Amino acid sequence: MTADAITIPPPEDVALTIYNQDLALIRERRILDIQADTASYLVPEVSGLLKPDTVHLSLPEGVSFSLLEQNFDYDLVSGEKLLEKFIGRELLLMDDEHDTQLAATLLSTAGARIVRDGDGRILIDPPGRVVLPPGAADELLLRPTLSWSLWSQKAGQQRAELSYLSAGLSWEASYVVLLNADDTAGDFEGWVTITNRSGTTYHNAHLKLVAGDVHLVRERPERPQMKDATLRAAAMAPEAFQEEELFEYHLYDLPRTTTIRDNQLKQIGLLTAPAVAFTKRLVFDGLRGGDVRVGMEFTNSEEAGLGMPLPAGIVRAFKRDSDGDPQFLGEDRIDHTPRDEKRLLHVGNAFDVVGETVRTEYSKQKRGFTASHEVTLRNHKDDEDVTVIVVARFFHAWKITASSHEHIQKDAHTAEFHIPVKADGEAVLTFSLKANWR
């Protein structure tokens, strides 16, 4: 950084594309007062966690220039750094309590303040506050700054575009579901929480969010053609995020600007969908036992009241009590959910429905085994019949050889039994299986 460096004004336009993985693509438009030949420039108010090797500067066509050298300076003003700058130099110690002052040479700040006074004595942590001469902080920066050595064929003001990748910016989705009285539907709200720890505030930024596991980010991706992939109008606020496909990811574009301050958590509404269809599921592990789990299942479809690709996040379920007050039921995390995919939210364990499983028979075979199980389900609700899904998961080739109830083969490793249990009643499932080691 040189004393005659030209300071470039703050950006007049900022665009942020934030990814799930503590990464953001930042694009700025700034006015550069370019000098002919080679000159030094300072670019203030950039991210404190920018990746210098991703910086890209572009000027209008017809402007011949070359970026000869670049430095990223993050030597910000602090008491510790100011003292480090004065090692070997003279400073003043003023003791207000005794109304004295001492001129001394600073020798070290490592672990203790060590100085040498005018008589040559070495003093460790002498009393008094440190007073530095005027201009002592001029060598330090108030904010992260890029410094350039740039050659240009001609002088003049140019509108430049600067882009770079930065850490310190991330986002995640979260959802709230308020279930109705009979657990068949719920008002579904989605929120985006943006975290900015990059060391810089972004004023009136154009914001886009990318959902997906990005492995390699192209420096300047082309804007794809917008597809008609937004939520239906009845479920969208006028200024909510608009969704489109980007490569193998999904992009969420906020159609207004927003300011994201340094060290700020900002929440922005993602979607609002009333009366989304839900189905309550009671699930019991037929081989291991344990609690009967309570799940709420929904389909991310327009028919069910949704239909927008949902970024991964935590879904929190609530329901109103007899006084009309919403009470928390539980939460679960969903992965990225495309359209028309089902998701089962595990919100807790049933209180009044219990199950137990007993292996009643086991016989080891030459290449596997045979076994029989008895699953007992008890429903202690006085006035509600329930259906419990008993799940049996296998890690080898298997076949149900006999059972008291029909089963559904969900996949190569899972069988399901749907067992109805009357109010204040009990149901028993028995099944036998043959397994072969692979």
Commentary on this structure:
The chain has 438 residues and is mostly beta strands. It is built from one helix and 31 strands. Among the domains are: 6-18 and 27-75 and 141-166, no CATH class; 79-131, SH3 type barrels; 353-436, Immunoglobulin-like (Sandwich), CATH 2.60.40. A hairpin with a 4-residue loop joins strand 9 (114-117) and strand 10 (122-124). The strands form six sheets. Strands 5-13-3-2-16-18-17 form a seven-stranded mixed β-sheet, with no helix packed on it. Strands 24-21-20-27-30-29 form a six-stranded mixed β-sheet, with no helix packed on it. Strands 10-9-8-7-11 form a five-stranded antiparallel β-sheet, with no helix packed on it.
Q: Averaged pLDDT, please?
A: 87
Radius of gyration: 33 Å
Bin the helical content.
under 10%
Q: How far do the termini sit from each other?
A: 68 Å
Please describe the biggest sheet, giving its number of strands, its sense, and whether it closes into a barrel: 7 strands, mixed
The tally of helices reads: 1
Shape: elongated
**Strands of the largest sheet, in order across it?**
5-13-3-2-16-18-17
